[in-house]
Write a structure and sequence with these properties.
Chains A, B: Pfam families: tRNA-synt_2, tRNA_anti-codon. 2 copies of one chain form a homodimer. Chain A is an alpha+beta fold. Helices cover 29% and strands 27% of the residues of chain A. Chain A folds into 2 domains: 86 residues, Nucleic acid-binding proteins (OB fold (Dihydrolipoamide Acetyltransferase, E2P), Beta Barrel), CATH 2.40.50.140; 300 residues, Bira Bifunctional Protein, Domain 2 (BirA Bifunctional Protein, domain 2), CATH 3.30.930. Chain A contains 11 helices and 18 strands. In chain A, the strands form 4 sheets. An 8-stranded mixed β-sheet of chain A has the order 6-10-11-18-17-16-13-12, sandwiched between helices. Chain A has a 5-stranded mixed β-barrel with strand order 1-2-3-5-4. In chain A, helix 3 crosses helix 5, helix 3 packs across helix 6 and helix 7 crosses helix 8. The first copy, chain A, is elongated, with a radius of gyration of 26 Å. Chain A starts with 15 loop residues before the first strand and ends in a 21-residue tail after the last helix.
Chain lengths: 429, 429
């Protein structure tokens, strides 16, 4: 007998079916027992006659298989229930569950949630986070594929970091030292030059951040794209704007049931996302909020305030800041005049979710800029040599998957948007 | 003026367009020059009047922008050509190219190809490999999403390897030692138990293989799926069979132009893939090919011979070998009797492209089997504890992306199916 999923049961009224899943709730009365079964598609109430079926003291979350008739019935879950004929235990829970997961709200702290990740993920509110995350990923891919981008997978074991700094994990690679990629930056640029012109990658990247914050992970999923034959960073921002519209629209359409569970309304982008220069943002922060301690990049408070400004004065929860100072941007960033760059960040609800910009495409300028940043061009030979053989103007960006998930779903901590997060102190489960 | 892609030019006959790309070939005659331009969608011939436009000694592979009229003309590439009005150099190649990439065949050895990867990828035969690889990935996702699978991303920095053995890379993780994941095995099983039931992941995995062979990479893309509520490994094999049919069909339909460039005909799976027990395979090798040196797993010669047998005697280029010996399979594999397991490999054209099977879902049996394999259950606590709280019967498999690409496209070396491969000695580019 083929298993029927809970979501399909409405097609089987008055028929006998087999359903399988986890025991979500049990309410034992004198004559009958109400049991709620959960499978990956939903919940259904099963009525069990205590005279014919002895459930014993079976624990919640045990895995069971049930054969019964689908009968019309108005209960809180569905317009039908299962009249149980046969009850089989597939895998019994023998120990007390370490956390209680069968309530509307999961009232545990973050550490307990992550320590018992497999159980906490069974809770519909937590489960739904990753269903929405799936839609973000699918929307990203769909949109870019339609726009002529090729999906790539590039190495995460690298000889040299792309982003500079010391926040890089070391790997013992046979006799050599290697590192975990901080970003696919060099490789996605190379793939533009390799003739694919437009590429994207969704893959793990690694940052050995020393500090634990609510917005940083040491391993996260970076959604990157890079595109050739652009005029400047405006083309990249335009692409992101349309990409985000597509993604948000997809979530709204296809993620309804999960959004309801999470009680989330998807933000709208009307027309375009406001774009202001970083230097203007500093002016605004000084004038409007009396904040004067910015040096080259916004701090968390600055990000919050400029988003507040964007929402209240410009009517958008997103804001592009452009023309970041040259001294704060990596060596591959296209300069704009002496002190600025053709780069941008996208901020959303108080946090940066994208960094992007136009890249340098000319060999000599790249070598000069590496030196300007106080780095040694020799070390980047494998990267720079590509620029000798015909690299088009290009630019791109990266969106942190967990960050954008966190911001769309108004989660308090980015760890909640990672199935199995890695941070400074967390290597398990 | 908006850039038009070469593939769209047939919609612009007698109109003026802007095209951009790389100079693929130049043939200078007395009065005119024929230049072929390549963009990501194809090649087009441009005719340049030497009197009005001086191209100088511009080198092949320089990046250029051309404005001209699309005129009907029968040449080897298209039923049209560009009558050039304006010629602009966007980024000039100033050095001699290290390899010659503008011939029908790229006549260089593998090392030279990989050392000059960005240039070699511009060759249509090499470029096409990754276009087909894209279709494999898309087909895998499409099919599984339709079948109710949820896409997951699980950690690649892990405290403990899943596959056992010493072939594992060490990472310096702050004060701790960690490792690079050999597979998402533990995590995909956990996600089945977390209520998603059916999950897949396409991501990097790492094997510190000491030896360099034509079929191994130290970093590769593993296409994994895992499914709950199965009867046994047969359900997993059935799923793979339908998955492969979908993928092969997709390549055939959507990859025509690339298959033609590569001169490849896609293999057909008529009805089902033959399934024979590993022990039978050993018998066949002994009887038919006088091969008697098998111990627990096939060697490369054995794999080739059994595939030869499958093709010649069973009429299929694929073959499932089932019931592998318990002593050779990892501790999570469901035993079948005392000496066999509910596991399988899929072999295709002489190489294993999939390992899969049913997994142990009961806590006590798992602990016993870990001991049976001579391992310490304490070390696997984070994994095994999940099995106490209601794990359904489940199984799954992994397909090596580069391997299946290599086999479908009849490449000689798996490195050819990796954009930027990593092996024992190759950490760059």
């Amino acid at each position: 007998m083929r298993r029927v999923m809970v979501k399909e049961l409405n097609n089987y009224i008055n028929e006998e079916v087999k359903i399988q899943g986890w025991i979500y709730r049990i309410r034992k009365l004198k004559e009958i027992t109400f049991m709620i079964l959960r499978d990956r598609t939903g919940l259904v109430q099963c009525v069990i006659d205590n005279k014919t079926i002895d459930m014993g003291n079976i624990k919640l979350e045990s895995v069971v298989s049930i054969i019964g008739e689908v009968k019309e019935n108005n209960n809180i879950l569905n317009p039908f229930e299962i009249s149980t004929k046969n009850f089989e235990i597939l895998n019994e829970v023998k120990e007390e569950l370490p956390i209680e997961i069968n309530k509307k709200q999961l009232e545990i702290n973050l550490d307990t949630m992550l320590n018992n990740r497999i159980l906490s993920l069974r809770h519909e509110k937590i489960n739904s986070i990753f269903k929405i995350q799936n839609l973000i990923i699918q929307g990203f891919r769909e949109f870019l594929t339609k726009e002529g981008f090729t999906e790539i997978f590039t190495p995460k074991i690298v000889a040299e970091g792309a982003e500079g700094g010391t926040e890089i994990f070391e790997v013992k690679y046979f006799e050599n030292k290697a590192y975990l990629a901080q970003s696919p930056q060099f490789y996605k640029q190379m793939m533009v030059g390799a003739g694919y012109e437009r590429v994207f990658e969704i893959a793990h990247v690694y940052r050995a951040e020393q500090h634990n914050t609510n917005r940083h992970l040491n391993e996260y999923i970076s959604m990157d794209f890079e595109m050739g034959f652009i005029e400047n960073e405006e083309d990249v921002m335009n692409m992101e704007e349309n990409l985000l519209k597509h993604v948000l629209n997809k979530i709204e359409k296809e993620g309804k049931e999960y959004l309801e569970i999470l009680n989330i309304v998807i933000p709208k982008i009307e027309n375009t996302i406001p774009r202001i220069k970083f230097s203007e943002a500093i002016e605004i922060l000084r004038k409007e909020y009396n904040k004067t301690d910015i040096d080259g990049d916004l701090d968390p408070e600055g990000e919050k305030l400029i988003c507040k400004y964007a929402k209240e004065k410009l009517g958008c929860e997103f804001i592009f800041l452009t023309h970041y100072p040259r001294k704060k941007r990596p060596m591959y960033t296209m300069p704009c005049g002496e002190n600025e760059t053709h780069s941008f960040d996208l901020l959303f609800r108080g946090i940066e979710i994208t960094t992007g910009g136009q890249r340098i495409h000319e060999y000599d300028m790249l070598i000069d800029n590496i030196k300007y940043k106080g780095l040694n061009p020799e070390k980047y030979h494998n990267y720079t040599s590509v620029f000798k053989y015909g690299m088009p103007r290009h630019g791109g960006l990266a969106i942190g998957l967990e960050r954008i998930t966190m911001q769309i779903l108004k989660l308090e901590n980015v760890r909640e948007a990672s199935l199995i997060p890695r941070d400074r102190t967390r290597l398990t489960p």
